[in-house]
Structure formats: C-alpha cells, structure tokens
Amino acid sequence: MRIGLVGGTGRMGEGLALRWCPKHDVVIGSRDANKAASAAQGYVKEALEHYGRMDGSISGDENSRLVGYCDVVVLCIPYENAEPTLDSIAQNLRDNSIVVCPIVPMSKSKEGFIYLPMHEHKDSAAVMVSKRLKNARVVAALHTISDVKLRRFNEPIDTDVLVCADDKDALAVVSELLKEIRNLRPIYVGPLSLAYQVEGITPMLLNVARQNSLKNPSIRIA
Ligand SMILES: NC(=O)c1ccc[n+]([C@@H]2O[C@H](COP(=O)([O-])OP(=O)(O)OC[C@H]3O[C@@H](n4cnc5c(N)ncnc54)[C@H](OP(=O)(O)O)[C@@H]3O)[C@@H](O)[C@H]2O)c1
C-alpha cells in the first residue's frame, strides 16, 4: 500500500514512517519538496540500521502532489494551520481517498490543556476535515498515541487507539494498518460526528501527565 504522510517531516510523520516502512511504500510530505526528500533519506537510514532490510520504501514529495497517488493519506499537520494545507491538497486528492485525521485541536489555559472546539463552538478537527475534503473518506484515529512512543520503533506500543469513521471499508483498511503497529489495538467508537469525544481525550491525558508526573500516558479500554 502507498501511504502519504502530509506534514510527514514532523514528529508523528517520523514515527509512522518508521512503523509502516517494513511493509509499505511511505511518502513523506512537506510544503517543501527538498525538506521532504531529506527527511525521507534520514528515515531510510534509521530504518535500515534497525530492520536491516525493508520490503517497502520511504520517499519524499510535496504535500499537494503525494495526495494524487497515495492510497491512504495521514494528516500529520498542526490544527492551527490545517485549513490552508487542506485547501492546498483538495484539488489533487483522489476521489474516495482514505484520509486519516489524528489532529487534536487543543491549547493551554491557566487551568490546563483544553479542547478548543468545545470552547470556540466549532466542529471537531475530523468533521472540519471532512467538510473541506468533500471527496475523502475521513477516519479519525491516533490522537492518544505519543510521538515519543511511536518513534521508539523497536518497542511495542501497548495501547488502544479509538477510531471514528462513517465509511466501513475505510475503517477496515485503517484498522489493519493500525494493527501492524506492534501491540496497538484499534477500537471503533462510532461515526465521524463522535470524533470530538476522541480528540478531547488528548488534552485530558496531558493534564493527567502534568498533575501526576506521568510520562506519555495512553489509554487501554478494559
Ligand atoms: N506529536 C504527538 O505526540 C501527537 C499525538 C497525537 C496526535 N497528534 C496530532 O498529529 C498532528 C501532527 O503532530 P506533530 O507533533 O507531528 O506536528 P509537528 O511535528 O509540530 O508538525 C508536523 C509538520 O507540519 C508541518 N507544518 C508546520 N507548520 C505548518 C503550517 N503553518 N502549514 C502547513 N504545514 C505546517 C511541518 O512540515 P513542513 O514544514 O515540512 O511542511 C511539520 O514538520 C497534530 O495535529 C497533532 O495534534 C500529535
């Protein structure tokens, strides 16, 4: 499968590329093609040092180009600047593309981390994405995975990932990809309209971490 990581030069992008490259062709996206190529080169070096060989590959390209040839696109971009990026990829995005949205709209207040859409009476990030990318099948996932754990790619991730989606086929494809990350368990929550519940867990986890001196807490449904 060809997986495109929009904003893949950042922290989540690195972790996902290193987790998926043994089996898949991963394309690192950036606003700048040179930056994408150089990040991809670095990840290949890291992956080969660890895995010895890869059946997949890691390459780099501009965000707006890779969405035209990838099977699954993951939006590894900050919430604050997501809208212009979505507009820049909308035109080239293939019809019915599967778009994974891990975006967490949050900020820090005096009291602690807060979930922005609740305070600003806005859509969840996933619903905002589905309104901007009308030809995409959006799957909300990966919000509670710490990039630190994801990038320690020689270690399993013993955690659950809560998933929201409207399209059952897209959900199945993304769930299989998530299961390939060792010990990670995808759990379906419901349609995309419920994504606000899942996105809102991340600021809560960060508050838990801060108040209890915990490092990179995650969740398990028992
Ligand atoms: N980090 C985590 O642990 C974590 C966990 C769960 C969910 N998430 C979510 O995953 C998403 C990515 O997180 P991250 O930590 O990987 O982000 P990040 O490292 O801060 O940024 C990722 C990439 O976004 C691009 N970017 C930065 N500013 C931009 C702008 N103004 N316009 C367009 N692109 C811009 C950059 O790529 P170029 O400069 O190459 O274009 C950057 O490398 C976020 O929405 C976050 O809420 C993160």
Question: What descriptive keywords fit this protein?
Answer:
222 residues; alpha/beta; Rossmann fold; eight-stranded mixed sheet; two-stranded antiparallel sheet; 23% strand; globular; binds NADP nicotinamide-adenine-dinucleotide phosphate; EC 1.5.1.40; STEAP_metalloreductase; coenzyme F420 binding; F420-dependent NADP reductase; NADP binding
What features would you describe in this structure?
The protein is an alpha/beta fold and 222 residues long. It has one domain (2-212): Rossmann fold, CATH 3.40.50. The protein is built from ten helices and ten strands. It has helices at 11-20, 33-51, 63-66, 82-90, 116-120, 125-132, 147-151, 168-179, 195-199, 201-212; strands spanning 2-6, 25-30, 57-62, 72-75, 97-101, 106-108, 113-115, 136-140, 159-165, 184-190. The protein starts with a strand and ends in a 10-residue tail after the last helix. Bound molecules: NADP nicotinamide-adenine-dinucleotide phosphate. Residues 7, 9-13, 30-32, 35, 76-79, 81, 85, 102-104, 142-143, 145-147 line the site of NADP nicotinamide-adenine-dinucleotide phosphate. This is F420-dependent NADP reductase. Its EC number is 1.5.1.40. Pfam families: F420_oxidored. It is an enzyme of class 1 (oxidoreductase).
